[in-house]
Amino acid sequence: DKMVVMAKSHTDNRGSDKYNLSLSDRRAKSTVQYIISKGIDASRISGKGMGELEPKVDCGASCTEEQHAQNRRSEFLIVK
């Protein structure tokens, strides 16, 4: 059986919630397209934008540039 993954994409906490949700959705789509371009079948990968809901570093209003960069990311979850 082949592995199935989901790309969860995230943003930093700058900008509005609505903007970040849209941005993370685009980030998820481009991550998925990249994986497909490498020869992985589209049925084996999906993507979801999480906006700023799940920061890797929960630094609130006092984030450094490095912390913002850590929060802007795509993560892969093994679904099956």
In short:
This protein is an alpha+beta fold and 80 residues long. Helices cover 35% and strands 21% of the residues. The chain contains 2 helices and 3 strands; from the N terminus they run E-H-E-H-E.
Question: How would you describe this protein?
Answer:
The protein has 80 residues and is an alpha+beta fold. The protein is 35% helix and 21% strand. It has one domain: 60s Ribosomal Protein L30, Chain: A (2-Layer Sandwich). It is built from two helices and three strands. It has a three-stranded mixed β-sheet with strand order 2-1-3. It starts with a strand and ends with a strand. The model has no long low-confidence stretch (mean pLDDT 97).
Element layout with pairings:
Layout (H helix, E strand, L loop, with lengths): L4 E6 L6 H21 L7 E5 L15 H7 L1 E6 L2
Parallel strand pairs: 1-2
Antiparallel strand pairs: 1-3
Helix content: 25-40%
**Number of DSSP-assigned strands:** 3
How are the strands ordered across the major sheet? 2-1-3
> Biggest β-sheet, characterized?
3 strands, mixed
For this structure, what is the CATH homologous superfamily? OmpA-like domain
Radius of gyration: 14 Å
Q: Any idea of the CATH topology?
A: 60s Ribosomal Protein L30, Chain: A
Provide the CATH architecture.
Answer: 2-Layer Sandwich
- Number of structural units classed as domains: 1
Name the shape in a single word: elongated
> What's the end-to-end separation, in Å?
9 Å
Poorly predicted residue ranges: none
Average pLDDT metric = 97
* Estimated structural class: alpha+beta
Q: Output the helix-strand order.
A: EHEHE
